[in-house]
CRP/FNR family nitrogen fixation transcriptional regulator (Chelatococcus composti), 225 residues
Amino acid sequence: MQTVTNAPIARHFEAGMLSRAMAAQGRRSCGVGSVRVLEKDEELFAEGDPAVFFYRVTEGVIRTSKLLSDGRRQIDAFHFPGDVFGVEAGDEHRFSAEAATAATVIAYRRRDLDELHFDETFSREVLDAVMHALERAQRHMLLLGRKSAIEKIATFLVDMAERLDGDDAIELPMSRLDIADHLGLTIETVSRSLTELERKGIIHVPASRRTIVLRDKAALARLNG
């Protein structure tokens, strides 16, 4: 729950090769990290669990979420290959994390951070990933507070297009319910907004309904603000 080029692509490819080679064993040591293979909707950690590990996605998509006091779910973020998540300031996880799709992550013990500092390249990658996550969180806060339903959907689609290689046809790895819980909308509002954007010729929603064709990116960008 990104557009990457050159060196990052090589890293994602190598990580994918590694995780596939270890997938049959589910979890196994990988240097200072260990590979975790998750089925769709499988929980990685729950809100309030000890924050012993932080994680890096190598395949699939992870969603982080929080249950509100009224029982509603708020999805904080979707983490895609290369993303680092679960880095906490305190001793407990503030969100739950589940696999939005079948996914593979590498788990690193927080106590091993000192050892990771010896690997300057990896330390820089972790810092960059955390800073990008912070930037996305700030944009998400603005989106929830100030934008209309149509603008929220447009912003979401622009972001997904960027994170899914910027193609005109994007296959969303999450359900419409996930999208609704991420944007603070109902699933009915998500469907109506997509239908409205399609009626205006800005997008096209094929029968598969997970694929969105972006017909007018300029119009989406204007709605995105």
Notes: The CA atoms of residues 70 and 113 lie 37 Å apart. The first helix runs from residue 7 to 22. The chain has two domains: 7-145, 148-224. The first strand starts at residue 27 and ends at 30.
